[in-house]
Amino acid sequence: MNTRRTILILLFLVLAVNASAREIGWCPNRLRCGIEWGYTATVFEGHVFGYVSDMGARVESEGSSLIYNSNGHFICYAGMEMGKRFETDLVSGYIGIVQGRRVMPLTLRETFFFKGCRKDGFKIFADGGLCFTGSFRHQQNWIAKTGVGYRMMLGDKPAMDFSLSVHGAYDHPSSVYISEYSYPVPIQDLRKSDRQSVGIDLSIALSF
After folding, report:
1. Going along the chain, which residue ranges are E strands?
2. pTM for the whole thing?
3. Residue 166: closest CA among 117, 124, 134
4. Which domains does the chain have, with CATH numbers?
5. Fewer beta carbons within 10 angstroms: which end of the chain, N or C?
6. How far apart are alpha carbons 149 and 164 in whole angstroms?
7. What is the pLDDT of residues 83-107, one digit of tens each?
8. For the residues of 77-94, what is the DSSP string, one character each?
């Protein structure tokens, strides 16, 4: 599945959600947008790298480890309240997934509010989709997240959300360090570049 097709699927899902919203009584007041920023701690990294050595041999390096990298994230989102307790949003922004590696996500988020979208109370959410990095050989990168949070209303519609979540990312870095090199593997020698990472996110958001 190529990137263009995946984006079209995400847009189709948004349109389908909007169509469903009309069935339950769509109105402009259900539209919601917001900004979110926070701290990200990367706690796990695994990789499989393949490259051509100085001797011309094909070499594969594989490993995984528990780590700790501090990163940040800033995202914007826009969506719609789907009835009293559900909200659907299209999300994009800027997220650090490992040290020196930042991505721009394009994900679809679903949120359930236990007491309602416009009441103080707890929520659970999940989102997933593409992330763009200018990655190795233009391969697709993915990110998914799930978490819990609390919404505090600031008025009839404006709200502040506090969230704690876990995300997983799969990407293909172009800059790869191997023990036999004191510098990144030259891009022309890189044959395979797969990496998985897991992070914990703590964030605050304002929505209107």
Report:
1. 31-52, 58-82, 86-98, 101-113, 121-132, 141-153, 159-171, 190-207
2. 0.82
3. 124
4. 3-207 (2.40.160)
5. N
6. 6
7. 899 999 999 999 999 888 889 999 9
8. EEEEEETTTEEEEEEEEE
